Amino acid sequence: MAKLDGLEAVLEFIKGLQPKITAQIAKKILALNIDPLPADSKELKGYSGYYRVDSGEYRIVYRFDSEEDLVQIVLVGKRNDDEVYKQLRRLLD
């Protein structure tokens, strides 16, 4: 079972969301704890070790370090715009 890190980013994002959506996102993130690379995850092009997984209309971007067995949540955001990727570029570049 992988360790989870970066939950502060998630808590900040989900503050104003409806409880049902919050629960869906939380469930998806906790599932990453058990299976860090689920079938619906995709590695991000240009960012080695970074993956994305969808939860409803939201996207969860995370980093998985298999050596440390660590899942680090980087960002959570809406899927229908590129804002998540713009934020990721600002964080990592």
In short:
The protein is α+β, with helices and mostly antiparallel strands and 93 residues long. Helices cover 37% and strands 30% of the residues.
Write up what this structure looks like.
- The chain is an alpha+beta fold and 93 residues long.
- Helices cover 37% and strands 30% of the residues.
- A 5-stranded mixed β-sheet has the order 1-5-4-3-2.
- It is globular.
- The relative contact order is 0.21.
- The model has no long low-confidence stretch (mean pLDDT 90).
- By secondary-structure content and strand pairing, the structural class works out as alpha+beta
User: What is the overall number of helices?
Assistant: 3
Extended strand count: 5
How much of the polypeptide forms β-strand, as a percent range? 25-35%
Determine Rg (CA atoms, Å).
Answer: 12 Å
Summarize the biggest pleated sheet. Answer: 5 strands, mixed
Low-confidence stretches: none
* Strands side by side in the biggest sheet: 1-5-4-3-2
Fold topology:
Layout: E1 3-5, H1 7-14, H2 19-34, E2 42-43, E3 50-55, E4 58-65, E5 70-78, H3 83-92
Parallel strand pairs: 1-5
Antiparallel strand pairs: 2-3, 3-4, 4-5
